[in-house]
Predict the structure.
Amino acid sequence: MCRIGSIKSRTPIQPSTALRLMLPQQEGHDNSGFAMVLQDLYGIFSGYKDKPLLSLSCTQKGAQLVEDYMDAHNFVQIAEWLPVPVKTPGLSIQAMPYYIFRNYDYPEDAVKMTEREKEDLLLDTRLALRKILEESGQGFVYSFWPDVLTLKEIGDPSDIATYFRLWEDNGCLAAKSIVAQCRQNTNYAIVRYAAHPFFLQGYTLCANGENTFYTKNKEFQKSLHRGYIGFESDSQCFLNTLHYVHHELQWPLGYYKHVITPLPFEEIEEREDREVLTGIRQSLANLEINGPNTVIGVLPDARMITCCDSKKLRPVVVGRDENMVAISSEVCGINEIMPNRDMTQDIYPNEREVVIIGNDLEVQRWRQ
Amino acid sequence: MEAVRTQDVGVNDLPWKIEYDRDRCTMCGSCVASCSFQAIKASVERKSITRSEGREPKPLHEHSAIPVIKQVASLTDFCRGCGMCEKVCPNNAIRPVRNPDTRKSLLSRDNGPIKRGGRTNLSAGRTLDHIIVGRISQMTDPSLDSARHTFDIRAPFGRVLSSKELPFAVVDGKLVKKGHTPPVQYIYPLIFSDMSIGALSTRAWEAVALAVGYLNEKCHLPVRMSSGEGGMPVKLLQSEYLKYFIIQIASGHFGWNRIIKAIPYMVTDPAGVLIKIGQGAKPGDGGLLPSAKVAEHIQAIRGVPKATLSSPPNHQGLYSIEESVQKMHLSMNAAFGFRVPVAIKCAASSTSVSVYNNLLRDPYKICGGFFLDGIQGGTGAANEISLDHTGHPVVSKIRDCYLSAVEQGLQGQIPLYGGGGIGMTGNAAADAFKMMCLGASGVFVGKVLIQLLGCVGNEQGRCNACNTGRCPTGICTQDPRLVKRLDIDRGAQKIVDYVLAFDAELKKLMAPIGNSTLPIGRSDALVSTDKAIADKLGIQYVC
Ligand code: SF4
Ligand code: SF4
């Protein structure tokens, strides 16, 4: 099973903290990769919070293809971080030649665009880049969004961190929100896109477990939104659903839980809002999940969310102190980064609960 | 010496031959009395015996006339193999034996096409038996415990809107419903399908209805029953139990006068309305109730004289899907104030997907279910040629319809129900489970119910005499003497027990794939040992 984790902090933290959260949890296949999404960035990107940031790994040719596309579409490059890797022999990493993290300014005519239109522009640009890189086999693009950075690679997480100098805590990369995960999807082919966290229009999500409704979810999502593509991992479905419920339908966040793990009919019947809940259950039956899963997500407004399946087959724990809140598959990870917290305050969310971490680190528990 | 007459019908021309043991027979007459087809009779045989009793042979010739049971050599009163004689005989002296040399089918067209009941005897091959539930949850996604976990076995029946069409508004951070949505019922995914009072004896119909009542009230399984064409008893129409019934309207509109007259007095809504366009057993043919079965009470319920009742092959005035949607669906919806799902039932056909697409795209969103009836469906009476040579298997058709909806992102909006041969080998739960994985929301069954009541008919030519009014088990006849053979309570109990086992078995299949809700569309859970079937259905081929 994948171990997943996230940290939301009052002050910017560096990726090594996320690694320290994840590494003690490792077992089995858990050393096969590393992926993280940083949001609410500090360090070298602090000056460009409102400018879309492109995260990709590619070959030199891929970099050129991307540049050509961005130029042709009037995106103006304004900042860039090109990691200078430590190429010590023996490191377990299947590195790509280039890793590009680059801020762009919107094209000029974006001034007239609504927020929604801008969001669509960013999505369509990422999808177009992905297509170009995929067809040419020259690279991978993970996110293109203001104040969001994604790094993914195949290999041993600790070596990957060495490679990118993440253990050095040099202040380059820092963020108030980090979601991380330390393995590749080992079910199917090892593909970089298959490693969570996944990102879509401001939504970040990672999930563990087995999505037994993958086929149903996928068949339905394919026609729901052009951004729901790939499906290299069954966990992408959870992100698509979160995006669909919250961003497309614009339903209040709590209904996400009603969509993925609907209440049994008998319980719905007892409730005042049964008409709404039955409506949801009818219309979104294909977005239900019915296997063992835990989800950790981050919303465009940087709030963090976690919940698990309706039988609580996959555990998750939330630990906190005054400065940070961490969500993690296993408590040992949290013990590593917050050894002095009040453990009696730890939350083990139940199967009918959604835990939300606000931007002031206030933890809310919503009952489904 | 007798002369051979070639054209005479002999017992050996018939599908069943009676094996009779004269030595065991006490001539009690039970078999003759029990044979509703008059296929056997008491007769006398001349016997010539030569015996010798002394030490030396002193042959004595003796001629005696002895009573025996004899099979009738007739193309009309022929043995159906129902086995009632065998069942009733206290001495095991008689039984029907299948005759491989029968010429009956060839010879009995003197009075036009052969008519019979039952289901196809030719296309009895079963796709579902080549499909296995092959995705077993282990390791990371644990199997569930069928006895311990709670399972939410409910299927939608009614028109489901897409999430964007739901009339929801956000008020104080909560969704609130602001408008009308089509009625959707969550029912048990096993519908007792349309067998009319008329096709069935009142007792048999009552037994099925009683089982439905019991399953709902005592077992909390929301099983629904379709009335079949021909109406329902007024008392039932005006009772609380109406909520368990799906009223059927078919092309003959039999019984609708009564239903419409009862509407003002109904204390509850019916579970649904099912417009029957076609039937899998005899596509292109309307319902058929031979006059032999139109007894007085049937005349009363249907409002007809004693005559053969043929429903037309089409609903008069429906020339297109648009009309069907506009006229039938709208009027049926309107009749119950848009509170009751209205579904249609069609015979599976190579054109089913087009019909389904049209229904899916109808702007009124008032078709609440698409019932596809396959070639293995049963019927009370039909031309044998239709039964054996027309129709379409239901399995791939359900799949085609589902996948067509998937392509458009409309899956689930009009629930698919598949029927026709479900439970044919006795295990309806496995059939239902597989059909659901392929995209059906549920299944409907008919034949298996009457088989539980005692029907002995099968698809190897046994009995299938439902059209004759002489059903030996009292299920498919209105003859009061025959009907008495059927015990309503025991029959109902048999159905209840079967459905309870069905429920347990369904859980036994849901548990290993790790799901507590119905696996509608979970084709990934299935594999097939037949490459052609796997390819056609889009599931994994395994060997
Ligand atoms: S098997 Fe049935 S039809 Fe044949 S003789 Fe016996 S009772 Fe009559
Ligand atoms: S037992 Fe009755 S219902 Fe069954 S096949 Fe024979 S006639 Fe038909």
